[in-house]
């Protein structure tokens, strides 16, 4: 029997309507999709071909239509309806005569059935069904004459789906096997987009087990593949990258990622559930950075959207963020409404367990903190007993919150030993996470998760007034980046290319600005390239083993006749721990905010005073104001310590805003050698580094400098031999090559501090900017770097008093000393300071002493500091 032309035409029309219906569904036009699919099914059921070939084609069309309709029915009528529809489809598949076609359809229907089960949270059932689907797909491949991409594609898809399910089940080995095989097969058969999908899923697996750099590498690889294919990068990749950054404590960076994802998501009306995920994650990032208003706004938007979407877990997560905001507001104010703990516990009790057990546990921990603050310790203890121990894959922030609850409760009951034990255990867990981080930003960002634990420990030690114990805790908790051996150089051609693009774009922006042309598009592209370079920097490189925290006897021995002052704050209380010849004293210094405000005002006055040719009247006004702020800081920070310090040289470990203080400007410290370090541990490592008096000196002059500040030949005259790079010779490549393994590298160049992207703070050279990232990435960074440029000692202060900027990046990566200004410096003042400094240095003076003498000539115009070590 031969099929009629009408039957063949009807089948083809039904197939075309099916394709249109799938396209409409993927675009979020669900009503249109259902209309097209029902019309297609009606057409298919209007014929009953007798010809065997046509009948098989008709049967396959009906099966695929019914399978799609069943999947959509699960979204609208529920899981049971979807599964029932697929059961009917499976019966139809048995009637397909061709075994290869039957295997193809069995695999496809099984895959769809597995996805329905996974989406409903039935992970184990879904994994089993996907395994059956995979068996059909692999049999079909084995029976083929030769493997071709069309036969491999369904296997890759099923492996990816099952690998993701294994990830969610915590079956790490099985997940890695499935996803790695999916990537390998897709790559071998040229299915690049599917390889990118599987690599993305592998990134989520790496994140699940806590390997943030590996996750970021996977995400980066996936994004590169999508772009190379000319495909849009899935917004979810940006979401997952942000989630990885949050694990690393980089909440600001995560927020920036999400702010780029949100507009595209909002424009896509089909992405309601995914948009809610992005909004929820943005709420988490805002909460972590202390932007409680934005956190509340985003959590509310996510909750409303998730209610419409019907995801109970998502609604719970969004509600929980709102409760965390309410809890934080109450804890900050010190006024906890009686109703708030009850509301939080009511939410926890209403959650279904075990499915939402982690959310319920988090809510109960919030209630514990609230009850502790209210003083109802028995209630707090009862609630805490209901919080289970964390599992192997429990997120670090959940672990830290549990430790914090236990420590706060112990402290409130007067069990200080137990409280300190909880803090130590929490910080040890955090160390384990930190040891796996790759880039400088990741390493420093993890401190965010332990911030409240460390604040509690410092507050407890301050209350008992034990200076030695406070010194130990400060070293244990602050500036963890510097506890690690320097970053190992890793060649990354893509990162090098991106930096070259940024350098070229920077020059193009300067030229466009000079020519009066628009710069908006160039700046936008430069910002995008910077973001991309920063992403790669997050997972480039690897840190060496952690150094031990400096012990007090080691510090005392290294200090010799010097003194160390380590500042710390708890709430608004500012203190100093003073170490002098084995004696350790604790001195209370008043308001931390008052000191921070004086530091900010002094810095502003010095910036205003910096230009070389100000009117005399303006100089007098600005100098008077700067002297007043310097006197205030001196009176608060230094004079109370004079009886302990005597006239000793100083090592200063600042805190927060005090990193911006030019210490040589303070009257009591005029002409005193001072070294600034992020911790005693970092200072000790810098002091113990190897110095060579006969090492190479490199003097670099950038473009556009006045004759005075750029006269490196005059500086070179102080040394028996020095490499001078200027004009066309002062290129980025030449400077990097010459500076590698140098003893001193002096840069007379315009500089820019990037507070939002510190590793891309830069020095302007002949062919474009030299970034901190590049100089720090040398195999052997210069042992001493002198930055005769604006503000490049400034840092972005991360949680844990973690300074990150041009100078600190160099110190963390192996340089032992950086001399740089903390505010703007006039060209003539900079030139005079540097000439004096190098003359004294070449004559044999220790760097800190040479700098102190140079600053003392005109302190307000010479706000330089010596960072790291002060001796050579």
UniProtKB/TrEMBL annotation:
It holds the Pfam family CHAT. Residues 629-854 form the CHAT domain. SUPFAM superfamilies: TPR-like. It comes from the Bacteria. This is CHAT domain-containing protein. It comes from Saccharothrix variisporea.
């Amino acid at each position: 029997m031969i099929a009629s032309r009408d039957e063949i035409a009807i089948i083809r029309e039904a197939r075309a309507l099916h394709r249109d219906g799938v396209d409409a569904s993927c675009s979020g036009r669900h009503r249109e999709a259902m209309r097209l699919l029902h019309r297609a099914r009606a057409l298919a059921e209007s014929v009953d071909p007798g010809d065997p070939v046509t009948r098989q084609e008709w049967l396959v069309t009906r099966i695929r239509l019914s399978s799609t309709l069943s999947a959509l029915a699960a979204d609208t009528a529920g899981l049971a309806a979807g599964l029932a529809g697929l059961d009917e489809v499976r019966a139809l598949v048995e009637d397909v005569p061709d075994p290869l076609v039957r295997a193809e359809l069995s695999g496809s229907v099984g895959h769809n059935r597995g996805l329905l089960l996974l989406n409903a949270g039935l992970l184990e059932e879904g994994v089993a069904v996907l395994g059956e689907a995979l068996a059909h797909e692999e049999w079909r491949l084995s029976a083929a004459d030769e493997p071709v991409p069309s036969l491999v594609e369904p296997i890759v898809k099923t492996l990816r789906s099952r690998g993701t399910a294994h990830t969610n089940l915590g079956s790490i080995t099985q997940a890695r096997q499935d996803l790695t095989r999916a990537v390998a097969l897709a790559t071998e058969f040229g299915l690049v987009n599917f390889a990118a999908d599987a690599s993305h899923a592998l990134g989520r697996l790496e994140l699940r087990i806590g390997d943030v750099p590996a996750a970021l590498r996977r995400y980066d690889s996936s994004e590169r593949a999508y772009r190379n294919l000319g495909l849009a990068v899935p917004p979810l990749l940006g979401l997952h990258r942000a989630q990885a950054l949050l694990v690393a404590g980089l909440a600001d960076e995560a927020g920036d990622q999400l702010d780029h994802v949100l507009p595209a998501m909002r424009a896509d009306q089909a992405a309601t559930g995914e948009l809610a995920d992005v909004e929820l994650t943005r709420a988490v990032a805002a909460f972590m950075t202390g932007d409680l208003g934005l956190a509340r706004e985003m959590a509310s938007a996510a909750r409303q959207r998730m209610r419409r979407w019907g995801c109970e877990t998502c609604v719970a997560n969004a509600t929980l963020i709102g409760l965390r905001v309410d809890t934080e507001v109450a804890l900050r104010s010190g006024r906890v409404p009686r109703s708030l703990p009850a509301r939080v516990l009511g939410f926890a009790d209403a959650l279904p367990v075990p499915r939402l057990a982690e959310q319920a546990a988090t809510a109960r921990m919030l209630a514990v903190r609230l009850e502790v603050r209210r003083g109802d310790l028995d209630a707090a203890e009862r609630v805490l007993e209901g919080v289970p121990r964390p599992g192997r894959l429990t997120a670090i922030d959940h672990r830290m919150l549990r430790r914090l609850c236990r420590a706060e409760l112990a402290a409130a009951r007067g069990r200080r030993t137990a409280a300190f034990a909880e803090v130590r255990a929490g910080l040890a867990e955090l160390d384990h996470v930190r040891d796996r981080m790759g880039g400088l930003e990741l390493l420093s960002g993890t401190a965010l998760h332990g911030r409240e634990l460390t604040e509690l420990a410092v507050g407890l030690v301050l209350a008992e007034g034990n200076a030695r114990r406070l010194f130990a805790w400060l070293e244990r908790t602050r500036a963890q980046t510097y506890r690690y051996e320097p970053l190992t150089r890793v060649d990354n051609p893509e990162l090098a290319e991106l930096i070259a693009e940024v350098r070229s774009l920077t020059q193009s922006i300067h030229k466009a600005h000079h020519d009066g042309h628009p710069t908006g598009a160039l700046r936008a592209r430069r910002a995008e390239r910077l973001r991309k370079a920063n992403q790669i920097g997050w997972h480039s490189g690897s840190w060496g083993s952690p150094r031990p925290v400096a012990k007090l006897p080691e510090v005392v021995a290294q200090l010799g006749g010097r003194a160390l002052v380590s500042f710390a704050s708890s709430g608004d209380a500012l203190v100093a721990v003073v170490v002098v010849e084995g004696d350790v004293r604790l001195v209370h210094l008043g308001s931390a905010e008052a000191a921070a405000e004086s530091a900010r005002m002094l810095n502003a006055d010095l910036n205003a005073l910096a230009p070389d040719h100000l009117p005399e009247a303006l100089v007098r006004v600005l100098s008077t104001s700067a002297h007043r702020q310097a006197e205030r800081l001196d009176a608060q920070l230094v004079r109370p310590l004079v009886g302990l310090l005597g006239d000793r040289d100083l090592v200063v470990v600042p805190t927060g805003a005090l990193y911006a203080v030019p210490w040589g400007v303070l009257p009591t410290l005029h002409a005193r050698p001072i070294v600034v370090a992020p911790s005693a541990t970092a200072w000790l490592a810098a002091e113990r580094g190897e110095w060579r008096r006969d090492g190479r000196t490199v003097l670099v002059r950038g473009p556009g400098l006045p004759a005075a500040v750029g006269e490196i030949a005059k500086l070179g005259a102080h040394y028996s031999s020095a490499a001078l790079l200027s004009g066309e010779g002062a290129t980025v490549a030449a400077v990097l090559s010459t500076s590698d393994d140098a003893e001193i590298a002096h840069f007379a160049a315009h500089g820019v501090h990037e507070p939002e992207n510190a590793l891309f703070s830069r020095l302007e050279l002949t062919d474009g900017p030299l970034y901190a990232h590049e100089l720090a990435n040398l195999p052997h960074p210069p042992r001493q770097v002198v930055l005769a440029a604006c503000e490049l000692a400034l840092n972005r202060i991360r949680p844990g008093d973690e300074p990150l900027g041009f100078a600190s990046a160099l110190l963390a990566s192996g340089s032992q000393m950086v001399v740089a200004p903390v505010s703007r410096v006039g060209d003539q003042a900079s030139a005079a300071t540097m000439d004096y400094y190098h003359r004294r240095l070449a004559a044999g003076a220790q760097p800190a002493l040479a700098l102190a003498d140079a600053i003392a000539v005109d302190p307000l115009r010479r706000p330089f500091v010596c960072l790291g070590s002060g001796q050579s």
